[in-house]
Amino acid sequence: MLELAILGLLQQGPVHGYELRKQLAVTLGGLRSISYGSLYPALKKMLAAGLVSVADHDPRGLLPADAPPLTGRRGRVVYAITAEGKERFHTLVAQTGPEAYEEEGRFGVHLAFFGSTAADARLRILEGRRRTVERQRDGLRAALGRTRARVDRYTAELQRHGLESVDREVRWLSELIDRERADPAASPGPDSTA
Q1: Which residues form the domain of 90?
Q2: Does residue 106 contact residue 99 with C-beta atoms inside 8 Å?
Q3: Would you say residue 193 lies in a domain?
Q4: Using CA of residue 29, residue 31, residue 36, residue 40, what is the dihedral sign?
Q5: Which of 60, 67, 87, 126 has the fewest other C-beta atoms within 10 Å?
Q6: Which residues of 65-83 are buried (b: 16+ CB within 10 A; e: fewer)?
Q7: Residues 130 and 170 both lie in one domain
Q8: How far is the C-alpha of 61 from the C-alpha of 21, rounded, in Å?
């Protein structure tokens, strides 16, 4: 998941690790907080695999023009995607199996990069996610039916809230699927609400 997100963001241009971490948080919409303890080992692994490279850069280019020279501190390392990284990114966004939609975090990363994903793959991922969430909903409904008489009202409210959240996700996915089928070339804009 992290590999896909990093490669997707590096498609937009070279960036240093600190900025990459901030962009990941924004792009993933709070789905997951990325720590430096997971980001830098991932970058190191991707560097060794030839998916990313350390970009040539002017360290002063990252600073305001009137900033004093860096003394005693290493300049920030700027990462860029390689041709192999671009190939790997396109392979990852084209994956439509359960790995793309069963886990909420992985689905969210795929969704974040749907603009780079083929229309038929987007539809398969959305439909797979909806099936997964519908199974969760059915399990929640069955559990609620079995435990309703044995739980206090607060636990019952918590269960009801969980079921409403899952119902809402199924409706949202259905709307996305309907829009995708109606116009696979259109993608939701920044102002669209689903």
Answers
A1: 2-56+78-94
A2: yes
A3: no
A4: negative
A5: 67
A6: eeeeeeeeeeebebbebbe
A7: yes
A8: 19
